[in-house]
Amino acid sequence: MADPSAHGNARAQIRPHDAIAEFTRLLWLLRHILAMLLALFFLLSIAMYYLGGTVGATSRAPSSIGETFYFCAVTALTIGYGDVVPTSALGRIIAVLLGLLGVLLTGVVTACAVYSIQFAAQRAGLLHRQTRTADSDP
């Protein structure tokens, strides 16, 4: 195991404020992309309500707008309880698109979180940025 003092101060700690501030800054920089993804989520949710034929799995009754948004959120988060299901082919296609959208949105937010923690660690002296030169091996 590597010596913790080899990369800087052994007592250095990541400051949560640095990570949170960087995370907020990144989300702000990506606000247009995130807004577009959220708008697409709402458009797909509305399409699911009118075209997807979502029904309660046990009652087989048509879903309300609230139940449809719940289904769309559960699908986008890739949880998938199965208590509300689409019954039409178009509804199943919309569900797949919602799942892909959710994975994309989750990936963007996760990447921002990881970068923010790396930024805070670098600022604390726990992580050094490596630069590649033309002579270095890939």
Q: Which properties best describe this structure?
A:
ion transport, 138 residues, voltage-gated potassium channel activity, ion channel, 2 strands, K_chnl_dom, transmembrane helix, 59% helix, mainly alpha, 4 helices, elongated
Helix content: 55-70%
Continuous helix count: 4
| CATH top level label of the domain at 36-123 | Mainly Alpha
Name of the CATH architecture of the domain at 36-123? Orthogonal Bundle
Overall structural class, as computed from helix and strand content, comes to mainly alpha
Transmembrane segments: 33-52, 64-81, 93-117
Membrane topology: Multi-pass membrane protein
InterPro entries: K_chnl_dom, VG_K_chnl
GO molecular function: voltage-gated potassium channel activity
Task: Give a summary of the structure in a few sentences.
This protein has 138 residues and is an all-alpha fold. It is 59% helix and 3% strand.
Structural overview:
It is a single chain. The chain has a domain at 36-123: Helix Hairpins, CATH 1.10.287.70. It is built from four helices and two strands. The chain has helices at 16-29, 31-51, 65-76, 89-123, and strands spanning 55-56, 84-85. A two-stranded antiparallel ribbon has the order 1-2. The longest helix is centred in the C-terminal third of the chain and has 35 residues, at 89-123. The protein is elongated, with a radius of gyration of 22 Å. The protein starts with 15 loop residues before the first helix and ends in a 15-residue tail after the last helix. The model has no long low-confidence stretch (mean pLDDT 88).
